[in-house]
């Protein structure tokens, strides 16, 4: 368990910079985050890239599914301009770009496997292999809304940490987490804002990392509840609160 709540930047400093880009990750670290949360997907030619949506429509100057493009084709696209003209020409990062960066910085990493809509073949094996290549297994947790995938990760490497993403008011999440063999639960913050739920989870030695907390009032409540990790688009705001 962590002494204080970890400040985990959601898709980097996505409140002010284009999400899931190296700029967003770097700015989050500058803003004082402890960790970075990002989303891993696979290109047509099996390169691990970081992007939240399965499609390109919202964040780029293009359309279609990431899985239909090669890495070289994706690299030609603009992943910054939709956020603002001054961010023109920002490229999609690979998982390796971020692992290399975090290795130098001692940053906690939450990798969400985006395998709920598209079941990327071999995604779990590939991500775990990369984590070991960079010798980062101690500072990485994998998460997904697809809990079958998290069970699969444990089967590949029982030492890898896993977190279960969910939005529902799950009953006794600590028992479910134990059943699935997960190290953490990653609930929407509103579903655990009750002391008794948090106490029950902690009593079973399960970590709680909540998403996506952007309001300072909610941040304060969660800090007081002793939540392990708070995932936010505004690591600067959370950093200030944690210091005080």
Automatic annotation (TrEMBL):
Gene Ontology MF annotations: glycerophosphodiester phosphodiesterase activity
Pfam families: GDPD
Every GP-PDE domain range: 5-242
GO BP annotations, alphabetical order: lipid metabolic process
EC number(s) recorded for this UniProt protein: 3.1.4.46
Top-rank lineage group of the source organism: Bacteria
Assigned keywords, A-Z: Hydrolase
InterPro entries: GP_PDE_dom, PLC-like_Pdiesterase_TIM-brl
Family annotation (CDD domains): GDPD_TtGDE_like
Name used for this protein in its record: Glycerophosphoryl diester phosphodiesterase
Organism: Clostridium putrefaciens
The organism's taxonomic lineage, starting at the top: Bacteria, Bacillati, Bacillota, Clostridia, Eubacteriales
The gene coding this protein: ugpQ
């Amino acid at each position: 368990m962590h002494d204080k709540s970890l400040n985990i930047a959601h898709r980097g400093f996505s409140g002010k910079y284009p999400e899931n880009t190296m700029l967003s990750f770097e700015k989050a670290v500058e803003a004082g985050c402890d960790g970075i949360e990002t989303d891993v997907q696979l290109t047509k030619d099996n390169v691990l890239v970081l992007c939240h949506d399965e499609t390109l429509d919202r964040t780029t100057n293009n359309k279609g599914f990431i899985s239909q493009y090669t890495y070289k084709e994706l690299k030609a696209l603009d992943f910054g301009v939709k956020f603002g003209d001054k961010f023109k020409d920002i490229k999609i990062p690979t998982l390796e770009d971020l692992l290399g960066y975090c290795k130098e910085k001692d940053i906690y990493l939450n990798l969400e496997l985006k395998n709920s809509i598209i079941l990327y073949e071999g995604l779990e094996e590939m991500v775990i292999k990369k984590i070991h290549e960079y010798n980062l297994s101690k500072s990485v947790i994998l998460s997904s809304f697809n809990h079958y995938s998290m069970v699969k990760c444990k089967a590949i490497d029982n030492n890898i940490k896993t977190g279960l993403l969910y939005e529902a008011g799950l009953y006794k999440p600590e028992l479910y987490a134990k059943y699935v063999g997960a190290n953490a639960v990653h609930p929407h913050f509103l579903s655990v804002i009750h002391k008794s739920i948090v106490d029950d989870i902690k009593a079973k030695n399960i970590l709680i990392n909540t998403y996506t907390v952007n309001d300072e009032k909610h941040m304060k409540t969660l800090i007081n509840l002793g939540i392990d990790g708070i995932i936010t688009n505004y690591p600067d705001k959370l950093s200030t609160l944690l210091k005080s």
